Amino acid sequence: MAETEQQPQLYLISPPELELSQFPDTLARVLDAHAIACVRLALDTKDEDRLSRAADALRAVTDARDVALVITDNVPLAERLGLDGVHLTIPGSVRDARKVLGPDAIVGAFCGGSRHDGLSAGEAGADYIAFGPVQGKTPDDDSFAEAELFQWWSEVIEIPVIAEGNLDRAQIAALAPFTDFFGIGAEIWGQDDPSAALTALLADM
Q: At 153, which helix (H) or strand (E)?
């Protein structure tokens, strides 16, 4: 996943639950309509069989379009299935994942709003750092990654950064100068036409 000096690239995050008879076709339509750099399989299950079947179904779609496919946290499954890499929600596990998956795999780390965790994961060999959510779910919710974090990171650190979580048109427009990727998932999958929803979400970028 190469960072761009132009506008940020797009990184899709799967729903936590998906119907294998329908979602691959939905994903294919989104990938055909938009330039997507990477897809993350992020199911809310530990069931190896369900994860394997989902990974195989999504990989048939992503491979045909030369799009990378990573899986959340499951390093052994990423290795066994030959996926492009792993997205880690425990940033301290970057070094171990790299040892298992090798130098060519994508190893990314979600670091919430922590600059320290981001720097530590980067030093351990992460290919990208994800910060988020970018805004709280309610006006009183202050557990989010501030815009200043993305601005500082873009000015000081060379490791690509992903902005994800609770994105809307205003946040995308505001963060576009300071992030390399937008991680988009829940913002579009609940819509009748996810591809059109993505187009609308990016209208101000």
A: helix 147-156
